[in-house]
Amino acid sequence: MASSTPSPALSPSHRPKEDSERPPRDIGTLYYTDLLPFTVTAAPETREFLARVADLSIEFIRSTFDRNSKILDFHQPEQLKEVLELDIPAKPLNLDQILVDCKDALKYQVKTGHPRFMNQLSCGTEVVSLAGEWLTAAANTNMFTYEIAPVFILMEQVTMKHMRDVIGYKAGDSILAPGGSVSNLYAALAARHKMFPDYKKKGLLALPGELCMFTSLHSHYSLMGAAAAMGLGTDNLIEVPVDEKGRMIPAELDRLIQDAKSKGKVPFMVCATAGTTVMGAFDPLHAVADVCEKYKLWFHVDAAWGGGVLLSKNQRHKMDGVERSNSITWNPHKLMGVLLQCSTVHFQEDGLLISCNQMCADYLFQQDKPYDVNYDTGDKVIQCGRHNDIFKLWLLWRSKGDEGFEKHIDHLFEMTSYMVMRMKQHPDKYELLNDEPECTNVCFWYVPYRLRSMKPGPDRCKLLGEVQPILKGRMMTAGTLMIGYQPLDHHPNFFRNIISSQAVRREDIDFMLEELDRLGYDL
Amino acid sequence: MASSTPSPALSPSHRPKEDSERPPRDIGTLYYTDLLPFTVTAAPETREFLARVADLSIEFIRSTFDRNSKILDFHQPEQLKEVLELDIPAKPLNLDQILVDCKDALKYQVKTGHPRFMNQLSCGTEVVSLAGEWLTAAANTNMFTYEIAPVFILMEQVTMKHMRDVIGYKAGDSILAPGGSVSNLYAALAARHKMFPDYKKKGLLALPGELCMFTSLHSHYSLMGAAAAMGLGTDNLIEVPVDEKGRMIPAELDRLIQDAKSKGKVPFMVCATAGTTVMGAFDPLHAVADVCEKYKLWFHVDAAWGGGVLLSKNQRHKMDGVERSNSITWNPHKLMGVLLQCSTVHFQEDGLLISCNQMCADYLFQQDKPYDVNYDTGDKVIQCGRHNDIFKLWLLWRSKGDEGFEKHIDHLFEMTSYMVMRMKQHPDKYELLNDEPECTNVCFWYVPYRLRSMKPGPDRCKLLGEVQPILKGRMMTAGTLMIGYQPLDHHPNFFRNIISSQAVRREDIDFMLEELDRLGYDL
Question: Which residues fall in a compositionally biased region of kind Low complexity (chains A, B) (predicted)?
Fold first, then answer.
């Protein structure tokens, strides 16, 4: 210390303990100005207000897991606008109204953690992860420097290293990004930078021609978004045909690379998908890696969805070859059940993320700081400020351990097998698009009574495609079930059921099958 | 409803009320599997566990606002690794350990809401916004469709419309993005798309030459990041000189545009900054708008930092002319005190965001949904999944009203004036870089005793620059104060004090000045 004079701020005798321990005033009639920090003696009221919000949230969680509660109370947008008071007022509203606002928001919100919400790749609410997010909010910090997020920066390092170990990378670097699309963008930027390091500075002038990248026809649309944003143009994202299970065909990839080269294009990256969005297919990673090695292309794996299988001895063979990739996207907010948003991207080569994205802002990344500035992460990303997405993942992993996560993944696949088995018992009602799903996506058509005896053909096909959205509408109105649907290739609309919530039990699958029949039988 | 059979799931008589109301078991010895949804009768334990995490967080908030508590307990990274147990275990840890993990994380975390934390553009912890974030975590949804986020999508619409009204846009569209850098990227992508609509598909082939954009020398480094990511190359981000207050010089902008054109480059966008990162300068928006009109260029305003001044009658004149812009970035997580992360970008022209970023993913944005799919937002962004960043903003605005936010902004500027006034009373100790700050950035050198009598010149200048980082190190060790520092142009390291926390009072500023002197006098 520079001086021996004690700091006037740190004397404990000044603490207004009596304020902190008295009972709170009736908070309903108070305003934000009656809370901390506006009123310095308002610790009891602040505690009471936050405790009430916590209570509301906990009650929502309880009812989320209550199979007797509805998943949603559906209203059309125009109806909901009438029911809710959403306007920004000129004058402050009291805390009573703020608590009513909180209640109303939850009342009309969809319970994405409900055991019968099977609508998205991110279903479920993990309570420990939720606890992590509450604490993250209280800590309210930014992940760009060790200076203001020391604990969370170290957690990131430890957790990302653990994930790279699971992947099979010997070294490398990783970062958390706001969603899998941005993670995939980071991979594409690094791939371009690796092949054309002058590009960052010079742009087009550094290029020998039109760059192009390859991905499967069933890959996620974020690759196309990256092609547009990066300036390649979507024409330069070349889509590789897939087999009947939705997996990229490596021979087609080889052919398309040769084709692009013969047209003077410059291939630089191939993206294989591990768990496609709709069918849940895993591209054959070893075969794709072979093609990448042959043509010296960057090999990225988009395992935003399927990455979780790496945690299970029973399932991880589906990603054999991932250790040969240059980069991988893996979203813990999907199969691993971490709260939204938690996406990671990992690189086999250390140092690339920073050399690609570094802009050396003096005001944040001073080199003469009083600690080792290699711990600062902000210059590795295009984001600058970055939300703390690590604590909710780290805390959940601490509570489950690797073993718990293995059980977690195995449970999801067991439930999926059970669903497929049950559907196969009633082939008249449930037509599977793929009777051996590779991930927890179960794609099927519900067949209403009148179509069961109809001859297969274009007419029946068209009708089937029209029925599914109507059935979806009935589910939402009933509030008992949520399953997503979409068309794909030549297939008309079908349901894609996702099991990514730990809440799902056999009884929920039995319920789901009965409920489809109850709601859709007469369509 | 399709059928008159009641759903078996919705009968209230099945609810296990007795479980919900019994006292919880001792949760310390339990594991995650003893909580919901793993144990279906575990509502009491789940409630107890979450309540304890809420209590820990609330206690952290209380101590954050306690001026007798330290801002941080600084440890070097290697020390902190020894103190904390960060490893991912093979086997599950019990809830007692999970709660210890939470305590430890908060113990070593920097209190960014402390009244004497003046280190970043985002300081302070707004309790109502924190409440919003807790509820957001419980709701755990994704903002891409109305289907699964109906309430929050409508809140976004209402709040974004309100912000566009404040800006002075007659119509338009807006989106929330993960930070100002991504918001600026959205603006640049839209600007490019507007001028070259074929570019999205064709890439380079659609361009008449090398695109370039313009921003001030003091603008945020995210513009350079955007130039690299988008494929322009950082050489094609042309930096416009600034005046002594850090404001872009419009005549220089005009000259540099002509210069770029004469070299065959294709200017497409100018970014003016409203509140530069270091000095807090506001570029002259009308004059920049005139230049943009003259050359038919997209006019973007990066008001990530300064945007909040629009809420104050006393301050908004600094952004006169903003209504002439094509787009504006404005981060409520900065001057407005919303929890991290909350950034918005607004467009004067409606429809551009979607035509620029739309990739039409069938699995999410089906056109035959049972509601008006214009409410779905996911196809407007490059993110796909998007965290719910609206509730914490909307709820805070409801609690403050426009009037409360005006007071909020005015308070920050009053505190800034007070700080500058107090520093001017001691010119020997505090040398201001700019004695009339335009925003709440106060840039200054602390002058230790031995330098006070030294002649101005390169030697003193060099010493001053060396002293500030050492003083920063002492602040962190003492834990009593946090202020950022950096060099800028030819200026050696100086402090940039930010007032963006509602907790700051005159006594904190008095304390800060004394503490600098206490810690730095002998340097």
Answer: 1-13
Q: Which residues of A are less than 8 Å from B95 in CB distance?
A: 399
Q: Which of A134, A231, A341 sits opposite B53 (nearest CB)?
A: A134
C-beta separation of A107 from A96 below 8 A: no
Q: What is the pLDDT of residues A329-340, one digit of tens each?
A: 999 999 999 999
List CB contacts of B323: < 8 A, sequence separation 6 or more. Answer: B167, B168, B169
Question: Of B9, B149, B277, which has the smallest distance from its Cβ to A480's Cβ?
Answer: B9
- Look at B86 and A385 and tell me if their CB atoms are within 8 Å: no
- pLDDT, tens only, A57-77: 999 999 999 999 999 999 999
| pLDDT for A46 | 97
pLDDT the model gives residue A20: 64
Query: pLDDT tens digit string along A124-166?
Result: 999 999 999 999 999 999 999 999 999 999 999 999 999 999 9
- CA-angle at B47, arms to B41 and B53, nearest 5°: 140
Integer-rounded Cα radius of gyration of chain A:
26
Q: Do the interacting molecules here have an ipTM over 0.90? A: yes
Helices (H), A140-283: 150-167, 180-195, 199-202, 222-229, 250-262
Closest by alpha carbon to A408, among A338, A507, A319, A339?
Answer: A338
Query: CB-CB: which of A127, A385, A478 is closest to B340?
Result: A385
For B357, name the nearest residue in chain A, comparing CA atoms only: A225
Domains and CATH numbers, chain B: 22-111 (3.90.1150.170), 142-389 (3.40.640.10), 398-520 (3.90.1150.170)
Which among B336, B488, B384, B201 is positioned nearest to A343, based on CA atoms? B384
Question: Which tokens belong to A145?
Answer: 């420097």
Give the number of other CB atoms < 10 A from CB of residue A359.
Answer: 21
Angle between helical axes of A285-295 and A250-262 (0-180°, round to 10): 20
